[in-house]
Amino acid sequence: MARLGRIGIFSKSIHKFSVNPKRGHKGFFDLIDLTIIEKYLSEMALSCFSMIKPSESKKTLSEVASDLYELVRHFEDNDKV
Q: 10-22, pLDDT tens digit by residue?
């Protein structure tokens, strides 16, 4: 259960982080990897992460954490972000 909660937190964080540049800072949005945009900004993105089977949660948590880490590393030197 704890893994499923972390998956939700990470996926919502990535979603919100990706939506904000899309609205006001198109240049930053264009720097985000297309696979992350497709995975977290689709219509069903957040609801898909809530339907994960507990047996698949470890793998999914690893993927979501990796995506979040990639975003953090990509923008770590940019003070505006």
A: 888 888 888 776 6
Identify the three-state secondary structure at position 41: coil
Q: Who contacts 8 (Cβ-Cβ below 8 Å, separation ≥6)?
A: 49, 50
Q: What percent of the chain has pLDDT over 90?
A: 7
Burial of 40 (0-12, 13-18, 19+ CB in 10 A): buried
Tokens of 53: 């089977």
Q: Residue 23 to residues 11, 20, 36, 43, 44: CA-CA distances in angstroms?
A: 19, 5, 17, 16, 19
- Domain ranges across the chain: 2-75
